[in-house]
Amino acid sequence: MELLNNFKQIVIETPVDKIINQIKELITSGQLKPGDKLPPERKLCEALGVGRSHVRDAIKKLEFYGILKTLPQSGTVVAGLGMTALEGLITDVLRLEVKDFRSLVETRVILETNAAALAAQNRTEEDLAGIEAALLAYKNKKAASVYAVDEDLMFHLKIAEASKNSVLKSLMLVITPDILTNYNELDACGDGRSVSALEEHELILFHIKEKNIEGATQAMRAHLSDILDFSNTLQVEDFNRSNGKKR
């Protein structure tokens, strides 16, 4: 068992992780300096051999953490920070995505319960139409027995839009896609979870329609309790592996 402790768990990088790592290497090597402009998205996609969504997600995350910034009429440039600060920030971004799933989930619960409450308070008829359209797209995918990760994300983002808090929505854009992807890849949606998730979505929408702030908050918290429990289970399993215990 002591020998097993010398092995490290293999982490499979996502395309977004790989793009972020390449940018980190270019900064570390001095090929990218503060103030330097990145190539256009289209050329980055061609050079990296990935879709535009992966490039956009990587840039969006690096912008959120202040590593990159997009200037009107100028494109995306490296922030005016020192090399050590930039390298450290990128390392933190990658470490957060890979190592701290539970903290990401806890942060999502805080953001989304507040988003639901604010949406119930501030939503317009246009917001309701957007949330309903996202829910219908989610329902159609589920009816066809197809994973609906994008539709699930859109439903939650439409609620964030209805909150009228742009910072809250930006925070959700950073953390929620990875949570949803990992949650589905780890097959945490079995045993009728898809059915109950749809019912929970409908209840959240109902309370937002009724402008019931407390109801929307509680419905969102109940909806996210499953993924929070799942993250707690993962943390316990990781602790047991680290201490050489059997699962």
UniProtKB/TrEMBL annotation:
GO MF: DNA binding; DNA-binding transcription factor activity
CDD domains in UniProt: WHTH_GntR
Alphabetical list of SMART domains matching this protein: FCD, HTH_GNTR
Keyword Transcription among UniProt keywords: yes
Record bears the keyword DNA-binding: yes
Keywords, ordered alphabetically: DNA-binding, Pyruvate, Transcription, Transcription regulation
Biological source species: Reichenbachiella agariperforans
Domain HTH gntR-type residues, every copy: 13-81
Protein name: GntR family transcriptional regulator, transcriptional repressor for pyruvate dehydrogenase complex
